[in-house]
Design goal:
Strand content: 25-35%
Number of strands: 16
Structural class: alpha/beta
Number of helices: 10
Shape: globular
Distance between the termini: 9 Å
Length: about 325
């Protein structure tokens, strides 16, 4: 089969399309014919090149497609079922899903939409529900609301019933996001949004803030939080991994700061999140209350173009790579 692999070249991660053996599902696994796979900025960041300039590795972390084979010990799944989930090596003609990560694709979603759900919305579920405890009537601040995670957070927060304030350097993208329910858009890429957030919230601040930008706005996110506010650290597209921390604000406002990452989580911990997502949010997709915003879809052979578009920041929401039409 054909599959993309990332090669570290001069400090960059470059995808190459290669011929590799088709995998076979082991116990607890599903083999998926990939129909669509979402792009995620983190897997292409040069800072993630393994030490020692290690060899090539599979690329693509979320996929949707048809089940073509079922491993031992996997009840409830059969050939032809529509499935989506987080995985390793989604940019391929076939990929393996851990059955604990597998979700059934609702009829309300087409393949491209389904390919944009598993990783992004699972991250958002972790941020808003499991750790962020967002509820109806709360105020959510999203620094970098036009990103894939930012748009998904906006959509999910509105489904919950929260008020959403978002920042972006693009006035055009903020205007488009009003159609997704954005209550207040602040056109800035810097940390100069605190006063506007406080004013919009009647001086109270945000109950939950999501930082998809990085260290350049971290301190501002802390200052914009309400009493007992929560701050989710999920990205650093600005490349800044360090920032000041106002210990007095942390102490007096009883703040909660948390990270959102799956790198050190066990498969069992990840499965718990999937089970909660399946119960709480999959019905929202089935009913149409939640639907990912897919900005553009690239053909399977155009991963390099899709990656360049993502890195140029041309999109609003998700970029998706279609499955190969050759199989």
């Amino acid at each position: 089969m054909r599959a993309y692999r990332l090669h570290p070249v001069d400090g960059q991660l470059l995808p190459r399309l290669e011929d590799v053996p088709r995998p076979e599902p082991g116990p607890g696994q599903l083999l998926l014919r990939v129909r669509a796979a979402g792009l995620n900025r983190g897997e292409f960041i040069a800072g993630h090149v393994p030490r020692g300039n290690a060899g090539a590795r599979p690329v693509g972390a979320e996929a949707a497609g048809e089940v073509v084979a079922v491993g031992a010990g996997v009840p409830g799944w059969q050939r032809g079922d529509r499935a989506m989930g987080r995985c390793t090596g989604a940019f391929a003609e076939y990929t393996l899903l851990d059955a604990r990560e597998a979700l059934r694709v609702p009829l309300a979603l087409d393949w491209q939409q389904a390919g944009a759900v598993p990783l992004t919305f699972m991250v958002v579920y972790d941020m808003l529900v499991l750790q962020g405890r967002l509820k109806a009537g709360d105020t959510l601040l999203v620094a970098g609301v036009a990103s894939g995670v930012g748009v998904a957070a906006l959509q999910a927060a509105k489904a919950i019933g929260a008020r959403v304030i978002g920042t972006s350097g693009s006035a055009a993208k903020l205007a488009r996001l009003q159609g997704e329910g954005l209550d207040l858009g602040l056109c800035t890429r810097g940390p100069d949004f605190v006063d506007a957030v406080l004013e919009a919230s009647g001086g109270r601040g945000a109950d939950l803030a999501i930082n998809t930008v990085g260290g350049s706005v971290f301190a501002a996110c802390v200052r914009a939080l309400a009493f007992e506010g929560r701050l989710a650290m999920v990205g650093y597209v600005d490349g800044m991994l360090h920032s000041e921390l106002d210990l007095e604000a942390l102490h007096t406002k009883r703040l909660h700061l948390f990270g959102v990452s799956n790198k050190l989580r066990t498969p069992e911990q990840r499965a718990e999140t999937v089970a909660g997502f399946r119960a709480d949010w999959l019905p929202l997709f089935a009913s149409g209350r939640l639907k990912p915003l897919v900005d553009r879809v690239y053909a399977f052979e155009q991963l390099a173009d899709a990656k360049a578009s993502m890195e140029a920041g041309e999109h609003l929401g998700k970029i998706v790579l279609a499955g190969s039409s050759d199989i």
